[in-house]
C-alpha cells in the first residue's frame, strides 16, 4: 500500500521558510511525525497538525530528533512576565509612564466624544444630503452686509413652482412659548412651531402615535412631544383631544399625533407642531420683503447647487423688481453645515447649541497635542531607562537573541503598557464625563466607544500609539553593542540629544496652550465686563403676550408702587440680541432719501431706565405728545454719522420708517451702546415708541432687596394675569449667555492646558530621576570634595530648566502671532502685553525647576558614603 505523504504545497512552503542547511532534517522529522499521527487521527486532522508544524518551524532553526518543537507562545509568555516584573520593580517609573499616557488618552477620548456629538447634529435624517436651508444676504445702506437665517413667507412655494431642481419645501415658523389649556389646567409649550405639511416627510423625527403623512390634513391639527403630552394629559390618550390656545373657535386645536422628544443633536428643537394652514392668507402669500421664518428646501439628487443659486437673482427680480438686488441675495446652506457653520449668520434663532466648526477643530488639535505630549513622555522615559536595562539586552544577545527578537520584546512591552493606560483612561473618562457634560452643556455618553466597530478602532489606535511610542526606544535598546551592554554602558552619549529635543518640543506645546488659554480667558472676561453703554445690572425681564399687553399701563403703575422696585420700562426686543432691521426715509434739504437701519420700539423712559448717555438733543419722554404718538426718534452715533454726512443737521431732521406716510422728527442722539455681541461692531440704530404692544417688560430692583423685589413682581403679575404663570430672567444672565460657546471653549482649553503641563512635568520628573541615578557617584564625589547641597541641586537642575527656557523662546513668538490673528476677529479686543508671556514663561520655568529639584535635593542631601558604595 502506497504511503500517504504530507501535502505538497506545505512541503514547498517549508522549503521556502527553512534554511537549506537544516531543511532535509526538519522535513524528515515533520514527515515522520505526520506518519505517526495518521495512526491516531484522521487524514484531515493530521494535515492540519502538519500545517501548524510548518508555521512553527518559521521561528525554529534547531529542531531535534525528539521533535520537541519551539512554541512561540512560550516566548510571549516570557515577555509578559518580564513586563510585569519591570512594572513592579520600577513602580515610580511605571506610574509616571502609564498615568501620563492615560491622561493623554482620556483627554483624547472625551474630546473625540464631544467632536462626534457636534458632527452628528442632524445626521439622523435620511434625506440630509438633499436638504438645504434658504438664507439671505442683506445689504441696506450704512448697515454692514450680513447673512441672515430668515426668509420670506412666499419664497418656499414659489421656488418649488419655478425650479424643477427643488422637489419639496417646508417653512419653520415659531410661535415660541405658548399657553395651552386643557380642561381647567394651563400649560406652557416651550416652543410651538408652525410648519408645512411636508415637514415630517422631509425630516425623520420619530412618530409614536399618528400617521406622519396625514397629521396635518386639517388646519387646526396639532402634534405634541411625548413629554408634553404626558404633562398635559397624564395617562389619558391624547389623540383626538382638543386644547385651547386662546378664546374663540379658531383657537381650538385637535391633537392628532405624538412624536418622540426631539434628540439633543438636532438644530431644530420643538415640543409641539401645527400647520401653517391656520395662518395662511392672501396677504402673507404676497408678503415679499418681510423676513420672519426659516425655509428648508429638498433638492433632487445630483443637483448642482451653485448653478441653482445662480438662478436666485432672477427669482428675486421676478417677484420683487430689479432694485431688490441692491438689498437681497439668496444662498443655500447644507443641513449638515447649519449647526457648525452658522457663526457668521445672524438672526439665527432656531439653531440649538450652535457651535463653531473652528472651535471643534481647536479641540481636535489640542487633544492631539496633549496625546502627543503623553506619547513623547512615554518614548523619552523608555529611552532614558534603556541604560538600566543594558545588561538585560547584553545577556539576551550573548545567548543568541536576534535584534528583531529584542525589538519585538520591547515593542510588545510598549503595546502592553499602552493597553494598561487605555484601561485607566476609560476609568478616568467615566469619572470626568459628568463634570464635563456640565461644563459644555452636552449629554455625552461613553457607550459610544463600546459599540463593536468603535471599540475595535479604539484598540487599534492604542496599538498604534504603543507602536509609535515604543519603536524608537526598542530600536535604541536592540542596537546596543553586546560587550558594552554587558558592562552596563550600552547607551551612547549622543542619544540624549534626541530626548532633549523631545522635552523642548513637548514643553513648547504646553507653554503655547497655556498662553493661548490665558489670552482667551482675558478676552472673554473683557467682553463680559466691558461697559456696554447701558446698565444691565439688577434688571429683571418678564415676557409679555397679546393677552397681557392690554393691562401694561396698570402693570407698570402697580410695579412702580412697590417699595423694592425702582423703575419699569418696556421694549419689543431684548438687548443682547440681533435687533430687527427696517427701511427708513429721511429728508435732507429737499430730497427724501431711503435707507435702512436696525430699530427697536421702546417705552418713552427706556433710555433713562438704562442710563444711556444722550450726546445731543433729548431722550424720549411722556411729556411730549409727539413722543407718545410715535413721531419722535432717537438715533445712535453710528446712524447720526450717516444722516449727518455733508454737515447736515441731524437734530430736527424729518424722519420715518417702514413705509409710514407721516414724517416724524429726530429729537436726540444717544451714545453708541453694544446691544449685540462685542465681537460685532455697533450698527446704525433708531428708537421710538409705537402702539404695537410689548414683547417684554424690564423691571429694576433695589440691590439689597432682590428676592423681595421678585416677590413683589410675582404678586402683581399673579393678580393681573392669573391665567399665566410668572416667569422671569435677569438681563445680565441673558447677556452672559451670548458668550456661552466662548465660555465652553475657554473652560475646556483651560483643562487641557493644565493636563498638558501636568503630563509634561511628569515626564520631566521621570527623566530627572533617571538622570540623577546615572550621576549618583559623581554627586557623591562632588559632595566629598566640598560641594554644598544648593550647588549640587543647581548642577542637576540647570540642564532641564534650560530646556524649558528654550521651549519658551520657541513657542512665544509663534503663539503671539496666532493669538494676534484670533483677537483681530473681535471688534473689541484686549492687547497682547509682554506681561502674560513673562508670567507664563517664569511659571513654566518654576514648575520645571520644582519638578527637577525634588529629585536633585534628595540626592544632594544623601550620605555620600552610601552613594559611593553603590556598585
Helix content: 40-55%
Whole-number mean pLDDT: 83
Radius of gyration: 37 Å
What would you call the structural class? alpha+beta
* Strand segment count: 24
Give the DSSP E fraction (strand runs of 2 or more residues). Answer: 15-25%
Query: What is the number of helical segments per DSSP (H or I, 4+ residues)?
Result: 30
Per the principal axes of the C-alpha atoms, what is the gross shape?
globular
Short description:
With 871 residues, the chain is of the alpha+beta class.
Descriptive labels:
871 residues; 13-stranded mixed beta sheet; six-stranded mixed β-barrel; 50% helix
Describe this structure in words.
This protein is 50% helix and 17% strand. It is globular. A hairpin with a 2-residue loop joins β4 (166-182) and β5 (185-195). It starts with 7 loop residues before the first helix and ends with a helix. It contains 30 helices and 24 strands. The strands form three sheets. Strands 1, 2, 3, 4, 5, 6, 7, 8, 9, 10, 11, 12 and 13 form a 13-stranded mixed β-sheet that branches. A six-stranded mixed barrel has the order 16-17-22-19-21-20. Strands 15-23-14-24 form a four-stranded antiparallel β-sheet. α5 crosses α15 and α13 packs parallel to α26. By secondary structure, it is α+β, with helices and mostly antiparallel strands. The longest helix is centred in the middle third of the chain and has 38 residues, at 403-440. Mean pLDDT is 83; it is low at 61-69.
Amino acid at each position: 500500500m502506497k504511503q500517504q505523504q504530507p501535502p505538497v504545497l506545505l512541503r514547498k512552503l517549508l522549503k521556502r521558510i527553512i534554511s537549506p542547511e537544516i531543511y532535509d532534517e526538519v522535513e524528515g522529522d515533520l514527515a515522520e511525525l505526520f506518519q505517526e499521527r495518521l495512526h491516531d487521527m484522521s487524514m484531515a486532522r493530521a494535515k492540519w497538525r502538519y500545517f501548524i508544524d510548518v508555521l512553527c518551524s518559521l521561528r525554529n532553526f534547531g529542531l531535534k530528533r525528539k521533535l520537541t518543537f519551539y512554541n512561540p507562545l512560550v516566548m510571549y509568555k516570557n515577555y509578559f512576565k518580564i513586563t510585569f516584573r519591570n512594572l513592579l520593580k520600577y513602580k515610580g517609573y511605571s506610574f509616571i509612564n502609564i498615568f501620563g499616557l492615560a491622561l493623554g488618552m482620556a483627554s483624547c477620548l472625551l474630546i473625540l466624544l464631544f467632536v462626534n456629538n457636534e458632527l452628528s447634529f442632524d445626521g439622523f435624517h435620511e434625506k440630509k444630503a438633499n436638504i438645504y436651508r434658504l438664507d439671505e444676504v442683506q445689504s441696506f445702506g450704512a448697515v454692514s452686509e450680513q447673512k441672515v437665517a430668515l426668509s420670506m413667507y412666499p419664497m418656499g412655494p414659489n421656488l418649488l413652482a419655478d425650479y424643477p431642481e427643488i422637489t419639496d419645501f417646508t417653512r419653520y415658523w415659531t410661535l415660541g412659548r405658548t399657553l395651552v389649556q386643557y380642561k381647567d389646567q394651563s400649560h406652557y409649550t416651550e416652543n410651538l412651531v408652525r410648519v408645512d405639511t411636508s415637514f415630517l416627510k422631509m425630516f425623520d423625527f420619530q412618530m409614536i402615535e399618528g400617521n406622519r403623512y396625514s397629521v396635518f390634513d386639517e388646519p387646526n391639527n396639532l402634534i405634541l412631544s411625548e413629554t408634553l403630552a404626558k404633562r398635559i394629559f397624564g395617562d389619558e390618550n391624547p389623540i383626538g383631544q382638543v386644547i385651547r390656545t386662546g378664546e374663540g373657535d379658531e383657537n381650538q386645536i385637535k391633537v392628532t399625533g405624538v412624536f418622540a422628544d426631539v434628540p439633543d443633536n438636532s438644530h431644530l428643537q420643538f415640543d409641539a407642531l401645527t400647520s401653517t394652514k391656520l395662518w395662511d392668507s392672501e396677504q402673507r402669500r404676497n408678503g415679499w420683503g418681510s423676513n420672519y421664518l426659516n425655509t428648508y428646501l429638498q433638492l433632487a439628487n445630483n443637483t448642482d447647487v451653485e448653478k441653482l443659486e445662480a438662478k436666485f437673482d432672477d427669482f428675486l427680480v421676478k417677484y420683487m423688481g430689479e432694485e431688490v438686488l441692491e438689498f437681497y441675495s439668496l444662498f443655500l446652506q447644507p443641513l449638515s453645515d447649519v449647526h457648525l457653520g452658522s457663526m457668521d449668520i445672524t438672526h439665527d434663532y432656531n439653531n440649538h447649541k450652535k457651535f463653531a466648526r473652528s472651535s471643534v477643530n481647536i479641540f481636535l488639535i489640542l487633544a492631539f497635542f496633549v496625546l502627543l505630549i503623553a506619547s513623547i513622555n512615554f518614548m523619552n522615559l523608555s529611552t532614558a531607562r534603556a541604560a538600566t536595562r543594558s545588561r538585560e539586552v547584553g545577556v539576551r544577545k550573548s545567548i543568541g537573541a536576534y535584534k528583531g527578537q529584542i525589538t519585538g520584546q520591547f515593542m510588545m512591552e510598549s503595546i502592553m503598557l499602552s493597553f494598561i493606560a487605555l484601561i485607566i483612561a476609560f476609568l478616568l473618562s467615566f469619572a470626568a464625563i459628568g463634570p464635563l457634560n456640565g461644563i459644555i452643556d452636552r449629554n455625552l455618553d461613553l457607550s459610544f466607544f463600546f459599540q463593536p466597530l468603535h471599540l475595535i478602532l479604539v484598540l487599534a489606535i492604542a496599538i498604534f500609539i504603543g507602536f509609535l511610542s515604543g519603536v524608537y526606544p526598542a530600536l535604541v535598546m536592540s542596537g546596543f553593542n553586546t560587550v558594552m551592554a554587558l558592562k552596563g554602558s550600552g547607551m551612547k552619549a549622543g542619544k540624549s540629544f534626541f530626548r532633549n529635543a523631545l522635552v523642548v518640543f513637548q514643553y513648547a506645546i504646553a507653554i503655547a496652550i497655556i498662553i493661548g488659554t490665558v489670552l482667551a480667558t482675558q478676552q472673554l472676561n473683557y467682553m463680559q465686563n466691558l461697559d456696554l453703554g447701558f446698565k444691565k445690572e439688577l434688571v429683571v425681564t418678564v415676557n409679555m403676550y397679546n393677552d397681557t399687553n392690554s393691562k401694561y399701563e396698570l402693570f407698570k403703575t402697580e410695579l412702580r408702587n412697590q417699595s423694592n422696585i425702582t423703575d419699569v420700562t418696556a421694549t419689543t426686543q431684548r438687548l443682547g440680541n440681533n435687533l430687527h432691521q427696517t427701511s427708513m426715509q429721511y429728508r435732507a434739504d429737499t430730497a427724501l432719501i431711503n435707507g435702512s437701519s436696525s430699530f427697536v420700539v421702546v417705552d418713552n423712559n427706556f433710555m433713562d431706565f438704562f442710563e444711556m448717555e444722550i450726546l445731543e438733543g433729548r431722550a424720549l419722554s411722556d411729556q411730549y405728545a409727539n413722543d407718545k404718538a410715535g413721531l419722535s426718534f432717537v438715533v445712535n452715533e453710528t446712524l447720526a454719522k450717516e444722516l449727518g454726512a455733508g454737515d447736515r443737521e441731524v437734530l430736527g431732521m424729518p424722519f420715518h420708517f417702514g413705509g409710514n406716510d407721516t414724517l416724524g422728527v429726530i429729537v436726540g442722539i444717544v451714545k453708541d451702546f453694544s446691544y449685540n455681541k462685542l465681537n460685532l461692531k455697533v450698527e446704525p440704530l433708531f428708537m421710538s415708541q409705537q402702539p404695537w404692544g410689548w414683547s417684554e417688560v424690564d423691571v429694576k430692583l433695589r440691590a439689597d432687596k432682590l428676592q423681595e423685589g421678585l416677590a413683589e413682581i410675582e404678586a402683581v403679575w399673579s393678580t393681573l394675569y392669573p391665567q399665566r404663570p410668572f416667569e422671569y430672567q435677569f438681563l445680565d444672565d441673558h447677556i452672559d449667555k451670548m458668550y456661552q460657546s466662548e465660555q465652553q471653549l475657554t473652560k475646556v482649553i483651560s483643562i487641557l492646558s493644565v493636563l498638558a503641563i501636568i503630563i509634561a512635568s511628569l515626564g520631566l520628573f521621570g527623566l530627572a530621576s533617571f538622570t540623577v541615578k546615572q550621576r549618583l557617584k559623581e554627586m557623591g564625589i562632588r559632595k566629598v570634595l566640598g560641594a554644598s547641597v544648593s550647588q549640587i541641586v543647581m548642577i542637576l537642575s540647570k540642564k532641564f530648566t534650560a530646556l524649558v527656557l528654550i521651549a519658551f523662546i520657541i513657542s512665544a513668538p509663534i503663539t503671539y502671532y496666532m493669538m494676534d490673528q484670533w483677537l483681530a476677529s473681535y471688534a473689541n479686543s484686549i492687547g497682547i502685553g509682554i506681561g502674560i508671556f513673562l508670567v507664563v514663561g517664569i511659571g513654566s520655568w518654576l514648575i520645571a525647576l520644582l519638578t527637577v529639584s525634588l529629585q536633585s535635593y534628595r540626592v544632594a542631601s544623601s550620605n555620600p558614603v552610601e552613594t559611593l558604595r553603590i556598585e
